[in-house]
Amino acid sequence: MRAPARAREEEDTSAEVLGLPSIKPLDEQAIYASVSKTQRVVIIEQDRPFCGVGAEVCYRIQDNIFDALDAPILRVAQEDVPMPYNERLEKAVLPSAEKLIAAVHKVCYA
Fold first, then answer.
1. Which of 40, 50, 97, 107 is 20 to 30 A removed from 61 (C-alpha atoms)?
2. Is the pTM of this model over 0.85?
3. What is the pLDDT of residues 34-66, one digit of tens each?
4. Structural domains of the chain sorted by starting position, each given as residue range(s) with its CATH number in brackets
């Protein structure tokens, strides 16, 4: 993923990236360990935000280790609109490095 490297170079911000190779079973312990270490969470997924995997991960973090958070959890997902056929509009709807970096800034209060 290029966004964390770009944030490190441009903003002097480090990030831990945790990819979930499977969602069943969900590696909750890896998620909780990462949250405990960083105290911040930005969930990015290429899906609509309603009832997605990111929503479930967000719920489990808040339900199980809420006190470990120093900032609200932010989610970067596809805009909640029908997927356009136009390539430029599609890029505007999907998550991007710019949207991810903006969310990281927000959770870091930068």
1. 97
2. no
3. 999 999 999 999 888 888 899 999 999 999 999
4. 16-107 (3.40.50.920)
